[in-house]
């Protein structure tokens, strides 16, 4: 069921799309930037967007705002932000979640 948070993760090309979290975003950033630089960039983007990185449940829309703030940084961080945006939008679209300024799919 679209938007059902109790459903098992959707699978795209044999890859489970787990719910995005601050921790998952940080792990992705750390792969390319290193742990310290990833945490510094993520924390700065969270402060810039007024999103609390210590809140366990953060909406995909809030995470998109944080990723958008990363997109204005240097080229490697911006490249990582593009990857994170694709990951977030895939989750949002597969689960048909509402996101500001994105029309919902028409009912069948």
Your description of this structure?
There is one protein chain. The chain has 108 residues and is mainly α. The protein has one domain. It contains four helices and two strands. The protein has helices at 22-33, 35-49, 60-70, 75-94; strands spanning 10-12, 15-17. The chain has a two-stranded antiparallel sheet. Helix 2 (35-49) crosses helix 3 (60-70).
Termini Cα gap: 13 Å
Largest sheet: spatial strand order: 1-2
Range of helix content: 40-55%
Low-confidence stretches: 102-108
SSE topology string = EEHHHH
Please provide a brief summary of the model.
The chain contains four helices and two strands, in the order ββαααα. With 108 residues, the protein is mostly helical.
Write the layout of secondary structure elements.
Blueprint (H helix, E strand, L loop, with lengths): L9 E3 L2 E3 L4 H12 L1 H15 L10 H11 L4 H20 L14
Antiparallel strand pairs: 1-2
Helix pairs in contact: 1-2, 1-4, 2-3, 3-4
């Amino acid at each position: 069921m679209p938007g059902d948070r109790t459903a098992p993760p959707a699978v795209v090309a044999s890859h489970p799309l787990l719910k995005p979290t601050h921790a998952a975003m940080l792990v992705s950033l750390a792969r390319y930037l290193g742990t310290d630089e990833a945490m510094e960039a993520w924390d700065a983007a969270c402060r810039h967007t007024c999103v609390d990185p210590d809140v366990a449940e953060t909406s995909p829309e809030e995470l998109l705002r944080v990723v958008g703030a990363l997109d204005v940084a240097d080229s490697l961080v911006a490249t990582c932000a593009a990857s994170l945006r694709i990951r977030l939008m895939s989750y949002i679209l597969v689960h048909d979640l509402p996101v500001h300024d994105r029309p919902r799919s028409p009912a069948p």
